[in-house]
Design brief:
44% of the residues lie in helices and 0% in strands. The protein is mainly alpha-helical. Keywords: Membrane, Transmembrane, Transmembrane helix.
């Protein structure tokens, strides 16, 4: 019998996935140690529409 071939993902897929995970981890570290950076960010709150 022939040895089974391992189905390995492309190296680009591994790099992109690890970058996404790394960005999420860095975001949480920044939020923990520097919360003042994210206090003034727009969170998309609903604002009243002015009457014309």
């Amino acid at each position: 019998m022939e040895p089974q071939k391992k189905n390995k993902p492309n190296s680009l897929v591994i790099i992109l996935f690890s970058l996404i995970v790394l960005m999420i981890v860095i975001y949480f570290i920044l939020v923990l140690f520097f919360p003042t950076i994210f206090e003034h960010m727009n969170t998309g709150d609903i604002q009243p529409v002015p009457n014309k």
